[in-house]
Amino acid sequence: MNKRGDCASGVECYMKQYDASEKKAIEEIQKMDVNAWKDINEDCMRPTNAPMLLLQHFVNLIRVTDVSYGNDDDAYTIPSSLKDYVTLLYIEQVPMYE
């Protein structure tokens, strides 16, 4: 829990665990994120016994997480940051080509 009584964010946990500044924690977490995407992309290119459809579900889940939490804003506690995405998904028409 942080001072406001909320659950600690990943940045706050990193700061406490490594005695780092907020800026340093954000930089390091962003590096971890970039490296994780590289690993995911490499793993999707390798032959595997897992069906590709299953892998696509995992990648899509990670994409949603990246959109929700990839910026400095936390979409869970600041849902207005997702407004444009929700509008595009449910209100705007997406052109379909055959």
Automatic annotation (TrEMBL):
Alphabetized SUPFAM superfamilies for the sequence: Terpenoid synthases
Pfam family, any one: Terpene_synth_C
Organism: Populus alba (White poplar)
Protein name: Terpene synthase metal-binding domain-containing protein
UniProt keyword annotations, A-Z: Lyase, Magnesium, Metal-binding
InterPro entries noted in UniProt: Isoprenoid_synthase_dom_sf (IPR008949), Terpene_synthase-like (IPR050148), Terpene_synthase_metal-bd (IPR005630)
Terpene synthase metal-binding domain span: 3-39
GO annotation terms (biological process): terpenoid biosynthetic process
